[in-house]
Amino acid sequence: MALLGCSANEAHRLAYGDRPPPLPDEEIGAVLRSKLLTEEIPNALARATKLPVECRPLFSGSLLERQFFNYLRGRGYRDTQLRTLCRTYDLHYCVRGQYAYRLVVPVRDRYGVLQTWVGRAILPDREPRYLTPKHEDTKVSVKHTLLGLDKLWSMAARPGSVLVVCEGPFDAMWVTTWGHSLSVFGTCLFGLSMSDTQAYLLDQLRRKFDYVALLLDSGAEFQAFRLANNGLELPVLRLPDDVKDPAALNPKRIARLCLSMREKALV
Hints:
Number of helices: 10
Low-confidence stretches: 22-29, 38-46
CATH topology of the largest domain: Dna Topoisomerase Vi A Subunit, Chain: A, domain 2
Helix content: 25-40%
Strand order of the largest sheet: 1-2-3-4-5
Order of helices and strands: HHEHHEEEEHHEHEHEHH
Largest sheet: 5 strands, antiparallel
């Protein structure tokens, strides 16, 4: 499954044909598949992937960065938060090429090896809002990993630590920005579905966090129910009715939400 990037069912078909896998029960099978993916084949998905040459790191000193910082300020980030945000997620920008006028978020595996990236348009009329590489450019989909996985995996276990699973990268970054001082961190699924790989990775990360929950965009209650019942049994947090996604929570509300999750983790 790790080498081919296929589902668990397809991996079983290729390995065993019509025969069931030689495991005593489904629970042990899930544990072994998770161990195979995350421990026994380290770097199975790692490739010599590089960001496009047009991408430049933010805070490199260019005047061209100003419009990208203004975009982040428009999303609510304070000047005092920008450097930490860019350093934590290694944010890049482009002003030419396929990702022109997009913030580029590198996506890495648990070892810090670049797997792929996501480009977010900063211009209001630029579609699609999010752009990911073609398969032949990276061979790895964003659905094979989680945002900030290398940072989350390297964390030492902290009492009362929280992992919030969001839909998109800016939702997760907003949670981390306001929650990290409380040991509350965000990650994302890059969409409203959870792949087998992402489920296994989250299952492994649960060992490092006292509380793990889903926080999806408003209107995604049915999808949240499906994700919460795919075997992980993650609690689902609700946004206020007047907020469309976690990134739209104002500083006071996101800080209050992070504090409430911290309290749940300490119970």
